[in-house]
Structure of Glucose PTS transporter subunit IIA:
Amino acid sequence: MKTKNRELRQTALAAASSAIIAGITEPALYGVAVRLKRPMIASVITGFVAGAVAGMAGLASHSMAAPGLFTSVQFIDRDNPMTIAWVAIVMILSIVLSFVLTLVIGFEDLPVEEENLEEIHRDQVAQTISIKSPVSGKVKKLSEVADEVFSKEVLGKGFAVVPNNGQIVSPITGTVTAVFPTKHAIGITSDKGLEVLVHIGIDTVTLEGKGFTSNIKMGDKIYQGTPIVEVDLALIEAAGLATDTIVVVTNSAEYSNFTLLEKDEVSEGEVILDVEK
C-alpha cells in the first residue's frame, strides 16, 4: 500500500496471496522481506508472537502441510472444538500484526524512475550481463519447473538446471545478500545491481538443512565459480523431492531483455542467460 513502485506492489500482492492461501512464503521472503530488510523484522516479531499464542493455546499440527488458509484444518483437534477458534485467532493475529508492524517500522521504498529518466535509460547503449550455470546438468525453462512460484515467474525470470553433481557455484560475481538458514537458497547481488537468487531443489526447505553444506555468509564477496553450497542429491531424491537448481533475477523489472541460450545440457560455468538493461 505504501510503496510507489509498481513492480514491488505487484510482487507483494502476489506473495501475500500465496502465503495466506497456500502457505507458500518464499515469494514474500525473497521478493519483499529480504529486499526491503525492515519487513523481515516485522515478520520475525510476528512469527514469535503468533507462535507463542499458538503454543499457549495448545495448537498442534496433525499432518504434514504448509500452514495456510486451505490447510489450517491440520491444526483442528476434533476432541477440542475450541481449537477452531484459536486457529482463526492466530491467523488473524499474524496478518494484522505483521501489517501494523510493517507500517510502524516502515521501509525504504524502491526508487521509481521518472519518465524522463526512463527515456534516457532506453537511449543508453544496452548493457549485457551474462549469468553462468551454477552446476553441470540438464537445462530447464522456468515454465517447466514443478513449482508455480518459479514457473509463473513470481520471483523473476531465469532458468533451472537438473544437476548431475552436488557442487553448486555462484553464477555471477557479487556480494552475498541472503543465506537461508536451511542453506537451500542463496541471494547474490552483482556490482552492477543484478539481484540473483539460487534456489536448490523444489520444497527442499522441508528438509530443514539436511543435505546442505555452506560456509558462505551474508556480506561475503564472491566470484563466479565460487562454491556456495554442497548438496547431497541422493538425500533430496530419497525424500521424493526434485533437485532442480533454479536461478532467478529477482529484480527482473529493472531489465528489458532476457536471452536464454538454447541448450539441452550445460557445464558448470557456461553462459546460459544474457540479461540486458
About this structure: The longest strand covers residues 157-163.
